[in-house]
Write the structure tokens for this entry.
Amino acid sequence: MAAPHQSVRLVIQFVRDLASAQSSYRIVIYPAPQKSSGPLLFPSRETLVQQLQAVIPGFDGHQIQADEPATSQIVFASTLELSESQLARLCPDH
């Protein structure tokens, strides 16, 4: 029997801190897993795509805007069907 899947909204935001000139990518999942400690942060698009491809087979990293925007903005949003195992790998505190 296949593991049950949960429909979640996966939102990826590019975040630029103007004060420090640092940037990162943030994943937010809605509804948030019960034991989640908040958004997941990645220092680069490459590490973000690697993690998503490891958790979601067939995830196309080209869906995420490649050029870093000048300001913070959403670079990807989609509703996905994820298993409990996939959610646990995306959200280690889940």
Summary: The beta strands are 5-17, 22-30, 40-42, 73-83. The chain has one domain: 5-90. The chain has a mean pLDDT of 84.
